[in-house]
Amino acid sequence: MKFSVFAAVLLLCLAGAPILHEATTVSNGLELPVNPITPVVAERPVINIPMCNREANWGGGSCVHASVVALMRWQNRHALAWYWRKTYTGGESANGLHQKMDEEGVRYAYTVNGDAKFLEWACRTRRGCAVTCRGGKHMVALVHFDNEHAAIIDNNHIDRIQWMSRKRFMSEWHNSNGWAVAVIYAPCAPLKPKA
Description:
This protein has six helices and eight strands; from the N terminus they run αββαααβαββββαβ. It is an alpha+beta fold. It has a domain at about 50-185: Cathepsin B, Chain A (Alpha-Beta Complex).
């Protein structure tokens, strides 16, 4: 009798099991780690950073750092985000940021050649990523990326999420050097569906 109850519970659990995804290899040669079980999420945007965890640009142009800080908070790295906000300021290049992240022991992945698979991975795993825009002179947080749409949080306007077509976003990103960087920790859990 105990076995049949266990089997019934197991079958119920498996019926609602999320879809599994495999790791993705991106253009910089990294095999990106993916949670063994990545749920399909209906939440929009997928990276739904609360207003209190968004970071505004500071110190005369720290858009790269502001985007990274918001994504660190989203991944429950509040102490690291606080340290990063306190320690780094000013403009930043890909090489400069990656060197700082290496020195600080931050787990991250990136692309510098406009690889859409990287963006898909970052959003599918609910981590998000910081992406270049405005001809490479600005960086924002990509918080949604699907077959039709993209959404960003601009650290100059953290009070809103800006939606656009995927095609428009990709054109802007490719015209802005195609750099994206994602911190790799555990993202917040999705919101519970409304009953």
